[in-house]
Specification:
Elements (H helix, E strand, L loop, with lengths): L3 E5 L5 H10 L7 E4 H7 L1 H9 L4 E7 L3 H12 L5 E5 L4 H14 L6 E5 L7 H6 L7 H14 L4 E3 L2 H11 L4 E4 L18 H6 L4 E4 L1 H4 L4 H14 L3
Parallel strand pairs: 1-2, 1-8, 2-3, 3-4, 4-5, 5-6, 6-7, 7-8
Bound molecules: cytidine-5'-monophosphate.
Cytidine-5'-monophosphate binds next to strand 8 and helix 10.
């Protein structure tokens, strides 16, 4: 997979998403489509974006019994996006079922499967108190990364801070895709484990996901260019 900056298209509908892309001259850049937009627009949205040459990370974070996830993935595979994902917390059998479903729907294997380890909106305190996971947060991320690899995932979604450890544990070709990207002067919002594009690059991340730092910037195109510059140079 080529390194990419996926713009999180967190908009309520196609009209608003398309207007944002057009007004800011972001036609054809890689995009991440999440639940908000996909639940409103459905698979037709993916075709529209593909017609406009966008490569797509379809971020629906499936988490259900293995049979349901397998069937859902078989269906999603026909959209031929770059990346789809599940929650690793669904367990090894579910991750394996997701991969099987993907290959049934599109035997070329062109759609890669990622597993979300621990959401970047969660910190260690919440993980321990509410989710009741024992051990440190990075150890849990590594555990989920290994489990995902053993069960056929092509990579994980984690924070920049764990990317090095994931590569060490799972090998350099195992993909790391990291949200929680912020410029030095931008707001954290609900994200906890954040980092700059420069840090992401220096930690060996394969691709980054950026949403509000671009979509809520006063000058979105300028914010995109700054992120791209940092990401490509690995220095601020
Ligand atoms: O606006 P921001 O850059 O925080 O956007 C993050 C995007 O990445 C959101 O669309 C969110 O759903 C997604 N995401 C995430 N954490 C994950 C996986 C995806 O924040 N572990």
């Amino acid at each position: 997979m080529n390194p990419a900056i996926y713009l999180a298209l967190d908009f309520p509908d196609w009209f608003k998403a398309n207007a944002f892309l057009t007004e800011n001259e972001l036609a054809g850049i890689p995009v991440k489509v999440g639940m908000e937009l996909f639940y409103r627009e459905g698979p037709a949205l993916i075709e529209k974006l593909q017609k406009n040459n966008h490569s797509i990370f379809l971020d629906l974070k499936l988490h259900d019994i293995p049979t349901t996830v397998k069937r859902a993935m078989r269906s999603l595979a026909q959209l031929e996006v770059d990346l789809v994902n599940v929650h690793a917390l669904g367990g090894g059998d579910m991750i394996q079922a997701a991969k099987e479903g993907l290959l049934l729907g599109n035997p070329s294997g062109s759609t890669k499967l990622l597993a979300v380890t621990i959401l970047t909106s969660m910190d260690q305190k919440t993980m321990k108190r509410e989710v009741k996971l024992t051990g440190d947060l990075p150890d849990n991320v590594i555990h989920f990364a290994k489990l995902s690899k053993q069960n056929g995932a092509d990579g994980v979604v984690c924070s920049v801070h764990e990317a090095n450890l994931v590569k060490k544990a799972c090998g350099s070709s195992f993909l790391t895709v990291t949200p929680g990207i912020r410029l030095t002067n931008s707001q954290d919002n609900d994200q906890k484990r954040i980092a700059t594009p420069t840090t992401a690059k220096n930690h060996g991340v394969d691709s980054i996901v950026v949403g509000r730092t671009i979509t809520q910037a006063t000058h979105p195109r300028q914010a995109y260019e700054q992120i791209k510059g940092e990401w490509e140079d690995g220095k601020a």
